[in-house]
Structures are given as structure tokens and as C-alpha cells.
Amino acid sequence: MDNLLFNLFAVFTVACALGVVFNRNTVAAALCLLLCLVGVAGLFALLDATLLAFVLVFVYAGAVVALFLFIIMLLDAQGGTRRPFGRMAIAAGVLAAGLLATGVILLAGATGPAAPLPASPDNTLAAPAQLLFTQYLLPLQVVGFLLLIAMLGVIVLSKRFEGLEDIK
């Protein structure tokens, strides 16, 4: 029975992943990504990794795909011309990316590789949560910061500027 379920989840996941890659409609591709993540969560559940399955469904399938759909719909909502980036905006973006990359490289070199998560015998969230908010707090904050930057970037890119026809 496990082999049959594994094969079903594997075929479902690969089919949905192909739907993400080959779909021209971005909303449909994001929904295929949602189904692909649910298939991977099913594979995790078959491996008795219920914590990973729930985290994958709640965090990635729930929050991240919803954020993707929000960004996709925000980008498609407004047409029109967009103002090109100026030299100062490009310089600020390159400087911010360089500072972020330097900080991550210095931090990774100073701390070394992270220790693996300990096995939780009673399958509770206490041990992973303790590690997440102590030892892994900086990577968690970096990911949150990157998601915030991505969302702000999409809002800036999707803003319609009035009167650009006069500039040309």
C-alpha cells in the first residue's frame, strides 16, 4: 500500500511541477505550485515526517503561495507605462545587494555550518521552535527581510506613473 501511495504522490508531484514550468498563465502556474507542494507534503507524511508535512502545507502552500498570487495579481492589475530606473536607484540596489551578500558571507564564515535539528521523541514543536528562535533566528530574519523587499519591489514596479507620455 505504501508503494502505491508513494507512486501516486510522486506522479502527482512531477505532473504539477511540469505544470508550473510549462504553464503560460502565471496564476495557473502558481496554483500548480500549490498542488506540487501538497504532493511533496504527502510524500513527507509517508515518511512519518509529519512536522515537515504540516510546515510545508501551512507555511509554503498557505502563506508563500498566497504571497505569490498576491504579487502576480498586483503586477497584472495595472497596465500602462512604467518609469525607467534612474542611476541612483540602480546604484542603491547594487549597494544593498552587495551589503546583504557581504553580511551573509561574513556570518556564514564566522559561525560555520549549522548543527542538525535534534530528533524530538514526543513529536512536539518545542525543540524545533526553541532552535528556530535561538540558533536560527538570524536566517529567519533574513528570509523575512527578503520577502519584505520582494513585496515592496513589486509594489514599486506595479505603480502606474501618470504623465510619462509627456517626458518622451
Key terms for this structure?
168 residues, mainly alpha
Short description:
The protein has helices spanning 2-22, 26-46, 50-77, 87-111, 126-132, 137-158. The chain has 168 residues and is mainly α.
The global form is flat
Helix content: over 70%
Q: What is the count of DSSP helices, taking H or I runs of 4+ residues?
A: 6
Q: What are the segments in which pLDDT stays under 50 over at least 5 consecutive residues?
A: none
CATH H level, superfamily name of the largest domain: NADH-ubiquinone/plastoquinone oxidoreductase chain 6, subunit NuoJ
Q: How many separate domains?
A: 2
Major beta-sheet overview: none
Q: Report the count of strand segments.
A: 0
Give the CATH architecture of the largest domain: Up-down Bundle
Class based on secondary structure composition and strand pairing: mainly alpha
**Ends: how far apart?**
67 Å
Rounded Rg: 21 Å
Fold-level CATH name of the largest domain: Four Helix Bundle (Hemerythrin (Met), subunit A)
CATH class of the largest domain: Mainly Alpha
Q: Sketch the topology as an H/E string, one letter per element.
A: HHHHHH
